[in-house]
Amino acid sequence: MNKSFKSIWNEALGAWVAASELDRARGKRVASSRRAAEHVAQAGATVRPGAHAGLSPRRIVMTLAAAYLGLFQAGAHAQYSAGGGSATGGASSIAVGNGSVATQVNSTAFGNLSTAAGTSATALGPGAHAMGDGSTAIGINAQATGVNSASLGVQAIGSGNYSVAIGNLSSATQSGAVAMGSGAAATGVSAVGLGNNALASGQYAAALGLGASAA
């Protein structure tokens, strides 16, 4: 009986071989089955990583860190203290420096013996004190004790509410007073003293220039 032979690729041998039509057909089914199994395996390999993506090392570390910091607890606080500082003001209070103290919410004390005792107060520099809410004291021994007051300079004092003292030894002691210059002083309500050693002592008084005085 005559048989028809053709060359087909034998995957097991990795070569072309002669085979009958029946063998070729049977070989096709085997090869097709093998390819189908490979596709299923590949599909499974593709699905598995996605199915376990939630258990990746990165996610595990982030989840544990968040739980450790208490970020999932209502009313959680973030405080930071370093170098002998004490941050006791609850949320976002920061104290950096030996003897530094931040006692209110959002308060920041940076520098040895600095103190931020007002809400959202900022004290920067050794011995700086920001005691009023929203106050800012910057400089060695600068004092900002009034609400929303600002003192910038060595031993600058802003003791009036909304007062501003800029310059070494400057002082603004009344509400709305402004003193700018080394040794400048504004001791009257809304008084302005501009210039080194200028003095504005009267209510709404303005002293402009070196050593100027207005009562």
What class, by secondary structure content?
Answer: alpha/beta
Strand order of the largest sheet: 3-5-7-9-11-13-15-17-19-21
Helix and strand pattern: EEHHEEEEEEEEEEEEEEEEEEEE
Question: Strand percentage, roughly?
Answer: 25-35%
Let me know the average pLDDT: 80
Could you tell me the radius of gyration in angstroms? Answer: 39 Å
The outline comes out as rod-shaped
- Unreliable segments of 5+ consecutive residues: 24-30, 45-53, 66-78
Any idea of the CATH class of the domain at 80-214? Mainly Beta
> How far is the first residue's CA from the last residue's CA?
133 Å
Domain ESPR: 1-46
InterPro entries: Adhesin_Head_dom (IPR008640), ESPR (IPR024973), Serralysin-like_metalloprot_C (IPR011049)
Pfam family, one: YadA_head
Domain Trimeric autotransporter adhesin YadA-like head: 102-128, 132-153, 159-184, 186-212
